[in-house]
Write a structure and sequence with these properties.
The structure is a homodimer of 205-residue chains. Chain A has 2 domains: 2-92, Orthogonal Bundle (Arc Repressor Mutant, subunit A); 116-203, no CATH class. Chain A has helices spanning 2-12, 17-28, 36-48, 59-62, 81-92, 96-99, 101-109, 116-144, 150-180; strands at 15-16, 52-56, 75-79. The first copy, chain A, has 9 helices and 3 strands; from the N terminus they run αβααβαβααααα. With 205 residues, the first copy, chain A, is mostly helical. In chain A, strands 1-3-2 form a 3-stranded antiparallel sheet. Chain A binds chain B through residues 25-31, 105, 108-112, 133-134, 136-137, 140-141, 144, 149-152, 154-156, 158-160, 162-163, 165-166, 169, 173, 201-202, and chain B through 25-31, 105, 108-112, 133-134, 136-137, 140-141, 144, 149-152, 154-156, 158-160, 162-163, 165-166, 169, 173, 201. The structure holds a DNA duplex (28 and 28 nucleotides).
Chain lengths: 205, 205
DNA sequence: GTTAGCATGTAAGGAGTTACATGATTTT
DNA sequence: AAAATCATGTAACTCCTTACATGCTAAC
């Protein structure tokens, strides 16, 4: 979760912890937040695993100044080669771990880096997950509606509408993906170009 | 969380664990689910705390049959007096613990048992929580919009629309509460009738 | 010079999940 | 008699939060 998000953000540019958390908020928006209490330990774990390295962020600022080695400067984290591999590995995963409630948004946030075929599979996975849930709720709701009070009913109905809305959103996204997603090929070989990063699109003006 | 939900359901009628989980699904619908792995330990904790007691659920079924004490029957849980108190205590709580994402739905599900004044405070608390979040996201979105890719943007916008929707829902509910909430009194004394259960409504045919 | 915000971390703990283990009862 | 579903439970673990502790840097 946090791990994927960190890998994704550091894949764009090196950052220090505090900045990372701001970006996390900016990227994930309304649907997820992380505290420093989980961020820093995660960064440490990831460093120990060899996915990121710690750089002295003040080196550039101070430039020619003398030592000062004792001071506590910003710690800038950047991806290692293994880290990039790990990121690609996680991006390629299309399974429950990519379409459950808590995880889907994080995966979605990095769809720009994700293989088009995987994107569609995740969107579809998420959609069927929601459809299943909706059916389950609709069924039990039909059986128990009369016994439910005003508020429980309100809650169910608001919930169902939310799910409906997300299903429609996903359906639109899936259609867009199918239409404009793979522009090179028209049919046949859906050569999933896994790691290939699009030439320039990230910093496009 | 689970504790409140269990208290709420057992307040309606005694249930055994398995049944409790079904009811949990039926009551909470789309937005929350619990596994047995958390339900049973919670029931045990609650029994140790003295809020619920375990009854032998098969006693009635077997009636006059001989002992058979060794068999593993259903364990029916029911609220104790302390449990009812605890439930009222939790219901009366109008604070972050009642309007955060994971908790709000559970509190809402038992609004039928909740004091009208507390209901409004929780609804308003939830609403301002969402409005704050929305403002935060809108602000950082305005600052970073140009740097975000297609997908991140989609995510932000879908998120904002969801929040908007919930805010509108809450506003409607608050208005309804203010209007039809306290039907007996027209003004003045808003005698919060805390515990009073409605005469017959639960098992109405 | 003091408040506010930037910056990094740790310790303890909460609230759940998954996977496993077991057995009874009902349906096919 | 096999399969499904009802029913109860435990052990290990995941993942994150809260509260705390510390110090630097910019703004008022």
């Amino acid at each position: 979760m946090l791990e994927l998000a960190v890998l994704g953000l550091l894949h764009e540019s090196p950052l220090h912890g505090y900045e990372l958390r701001q970006r996390l908020k900016a990227t994930l928006g309304t649907f997820r937040a992380f505290s420093y209490g989980s961020l820093y330990p995660t960064l440490r774990r990831m460093r120990d695993a060899g996915w990121i390295t710690e750089d002295d962020g003040d080196a550039e600022v101070v430039a020619g100044a003398p030592a000062l080695t004792g001071r506590r400067g910003k710690v800038v984290y950047k991806l290692t080669a293994e880290g990039k591999e790990r990121f690609q590995e996680l991006l390629a995963e299309a399974g429950p771990s990519s379409w459950e409630d808590e995880t889907f948004g994080v995966h979605f946030a990095f769809f720009g880096q994700t293989d088009p075929a995987v994107r569609v599979r995740i969107l579809e996975g998420r959609r069927s997950r929601l459809e299943e849930r909706r059916e389950g709720v609709r069924t039990t709701l039909a059986r128990t509606r009369s016994r439910l009070d005003r508020y429980t009913l309100q809650l169910q109905e608001h919930g169902l509408e939310s799910v409906d809305r997300e299903v429609r959103w996903l359906t639109e996204l899936i259609e867009t993906e199918r239409a404009g997603g793979p522009p090179p090929q028209t049919s046949e070989t859906s050569t999933t170009s896994q790691i290939t990063p699009p030439p320039t699109e990230r910093g496009a003006p």
